[in-house]
Amino acid sequence: MYTDLCDRLGIEFPIFAFSHCRDVVAAVSRAGGFGMLGAVGVTPEQLAIDLDWIDREVGDRPYGVDVVIPQNDSAGDEVDPVALHERLLKQVPQEHFDYANKVLKDHGIPELAEGEFHNGMITRSNSTTARLHVAEAMRHPNVKVIANALGAPPQDLTDTIHDSGRLVAGLCGSVDHARRHAASGVDIIVAQGGEGGGHTGYIGSMVLWPQVVEAVAPLPVLAAGGVGNGAQIAAALAMGAQGVWNGTLWLSTEESEMTDVQRRAIISADSKDAIISRSLTGKRNRLLRSGWTEAWEKPEAPEPLPLPLQDLVAGEAVTRLETYPNANAEMHITPSGQVAGQIKKVSKAADLVLELAEQYLDATERLAALNARLEETTK
């Protein structure tokens, strides 16, 4: 499974594990993979605490940080996150907040204690917050890759990251996106098929991966979307990828930040339960069907707002559901790819890395046996 990108980053396996949980990132990196910490949803101050903790846990192992800067950025020239938050809050119609609170109340989800922090108070998915995240990430020598979940970062930020000796990764969902990222100086292209969880596009992985590999060669491509076992890793590498980027698989691990309600939902889900919804961020987002997603599909629901305004609407719901997960098991907000249909157990993250490697070897041995048989029949 060793590729040129492994050599470049000093890792054993080209498995890039995206997670919002620092424990998963550290466990995967210690096991020889490459943990990617999703920074969206935490303050820059909390990110500093998390990265300090990861540094202590991984020793000299490398890892990365993923930020979110949309191509159409609502932040503009705003550099003060508090001022940006106040400006954006004024753009959210009260009916959206009222509807979100009604959904939670109707499903019996308790309110937060007065003054308790919720992540609706973080203005996410904009350059103001992301630049603070990047600045913090670059204070940590073990951070070797900084990725933008919504494409190529602004050129000045790409240059700053490069000047620090780090690599830049950009996620894409089409060949056109990939070419634009390559032209802007991105070092690693993450080609995510539409099966993937979170923000995702329309094109399936088996079609997208080889097209992107060809379009941006010789840049390394990571295959994302629908990667849940070693055979799928083998397929990705056979199509020219230099590694895989996966997220859903790590949600079911013991270390993940998911509640037990969310873990059970993932393990019991069929692939068809991972649907496209705009109820969380306002963009196409693959989530598990739940009471929350269904509420935003009802005729009386207001139309979800564009990113990042819908983020502000859903932010308190995310925190309340994480705080009171057992209030109603049908109510959860769980980003998940279609690969959830393959996940049937809770595992330790490090064990999962080794399991993926063993499955990869099994798959390549099957192919080697087929090739040997073909050679015998053609002699």
What's a concise summary of this model?
The chain is 43% helix and 13% strand.
Which ranges are low-confidence, i.e. pLDDT below 50, for 5 or more consecutive residues? none
- Give the % helix: 40-55%
The total beta strand count reads 11
Task: Give the H and E element order.
Answer: HEHEHEHHHEHEHEEHEHEHHEEHHH
Distance between the amino and carboxyl termini: 30 Å
Overall shape: globular
- The averaged pLDDT comes out at 95
Structural classification: alpha/beta
What proportion of the residues form beta strands (DSSP E)? Answer: 5-15%
Would you give an account of this structure?
The chain starts with a helix and ends with a helix. Helix 10 (230-238) links the parallel strand 8 (221-224) and strand 9 (243-246). Helix 2 runs parallel beside helix 3, helix 3 packs parallel to helix 6 and helix 10 packs across helix 15 (349-377). With 379 residues, the protein is α/β, with parallel strands linked by helices. The model has no long low-confidence stretch (mean pLDDT 95). It has helices at residues 4-9, 22-30, 44-58, 81-89, 94-106, 127-137, 155-163, 175-183, 205-216, 230-238, 248-251, 260-268, 291-295, 309-323, 349-377, and strands at 15-19, 34-38, 63-67, 143-148, 167-172, 188-192, 198-199, 221-224, 243-246, 274-277, 285-288. Helix content is 43%, strand content 13%. It is globular and about 75 Å long.
